[in-house]
Amino acid sequence: MRISAFAKYELGLLLLACLSLVVLGTLSDRFLTIDNLLNQARLMAEIGLVSLAMTLVIVSGGIDLSVGSILGLSAMLLGILWRDAGLPLPVSIACALAAGTLAGLANGIIITRFSVPSLIATLATLALYRGLAEGISQARSVRGFPEWFMTLGQGQLAGVPSQVWVLGLVSILTSAALGLTKAGRAIYAIGSNEVAARFSGLAVDRVKVAIYGLSGFTAALAAVIFVSRVTTTRSDMGTGIELDAITAVVLGGTSIFGGRGTVIGTILGLVLIQALKSGLSLAGVRGDGTVVAIGAVLIATVFLSNLFLRHGEG
Description:
By secondary structure, the chain is an all-alpha fold.
């Protein structure tokens, strides 16, 4: 059976991730310990959730720069509704998830109904949602959450961090939705040629609004896990996470122009980035050196992706 060019790229990325783990393990004897690997998986959960939805957004030919601000806004709403409004914490969590989803839906409506490019629309809402988060917070954080809430961000199930189970479940659901459903095929079609998708009778606007709503929901879910892990809320939570998510998605082989990409590729990109961050830090490399290393790997993998795909088309 002939292997597709994209499958070859994912296989190459898997081999690169495994090679990185081996090399980084030789630089520090603490890197490949079970405790460190589980801790890195824990730290990867929030950006992982955001990256999964970002994969769908980019495959559809869009971009969402507002996810970090939605994360911060959802985190502050969770804390303020619980502490100041006196709502039970489960209700506050549900409200935060609903607010994140509505923020994402608003992005989709602005993009589809008013024909605003996704880059411009989400850049504007990035500032809007962050401003709302800062206004709600009044430069104050919320602390003192109950012990049961901490289990989501600090607990374990069968020896594996709780949020890793959440990330795994959402990964499976997202991968199945993108690869096995009509909605997934519609996302690929929209990203490949939106005009042709419209003439084919696809509900393009409805699909795009749903994708951005999902992006807002996963950002809010990441906010709940983030607050549980660090036991406090801050209005600057999630700052820059959109760039990390986009890096992981592109590193995983998803085309920034849409129409191509998989959840598996994004997961491999996440693992490679987190491995580099952890391994180089344990090896004594400064933060700026880690950024340079990740940038070099990104450039190299994008080059290899183009090479594989060009060869596959030939």
